[in-house]
Design goal:
It is a single chain. This protein has a 6-stranded parallel β-sheet with strand order 3-4-2-1-5-6, with helices on both faces. It is globular and about 60 Å long. The chain has 9 helices and 6 strands. By secondary structure, the protein is an alpha/beta fold. About 45% of the residues lie in helices and about 15% in strands.
Amino acid sequence: MPTTESMAALEQLTPLPRHVAIIMDGNGRWAQERGKLRVSGHKAGVKSVRAAVSFAYQLKLDALTLFAFSSENWRRPADEVSALMGLFMAVLGSEVKKLHRNNIRLQIIGERSGFSQLLQRKIANAEALTANNTGLTLNIAANYGGRWDIVQACRYMAEQVACGERTVADITEASLNELMSMSNLSPVDLLIRTGGEQRISNFLLWQLAYAELYFTDVLWPDFNDTAFSEAIAAFVGRERRFGCTGEQIRALLVK
């Protein structure tokens, strides 16, 4: 783990990411490589979730967003989906108090109506328990899709225009952003995808506009502090320009 001295030295060289998002891929392949059922890979992946949250907490990140279950994952075999829902409920029950003790706020982003009433209640209770915590914000994307996120924001904006609360001229990037998931948080700086695939799979399409993308072959159950550190190091080594040239950025720094 990074020491206080090494963290301070690193921050003097270049800013660390404030908000990291992770596509946790490779659970099924991890299980298959070991001759196990896919659900055993998802269970093994819970260990990596705990490790990633702990690492993000120690790095003092503002937010960590984990892609747990996409809106397309309902197409998977029924027994796997059922097992995932059961695992989701079990983890909510076992982990929320630990998060609360560590001043971590939990938010679930995604379309909740697809979940059972019991799971919806567990989500609401977990969020209520941690709502006033001021440390790391942990976002779990469940039944989430980036296109869904944009569409639901547009629908809400259209409803406001229709009832006279806004005008068409009020529709701007900033006003639409206010209606997107996680609008209350700092932008995503770094997206990590494990498992070797190099695509974003309909995840945070709006929020990743200027994020750095990092892909690793490490399967999610094997993603540990070392793998997370390598992703952070890759981020630190990049020149983030936000549409400007490097020369323009350096000119701003000397003013």
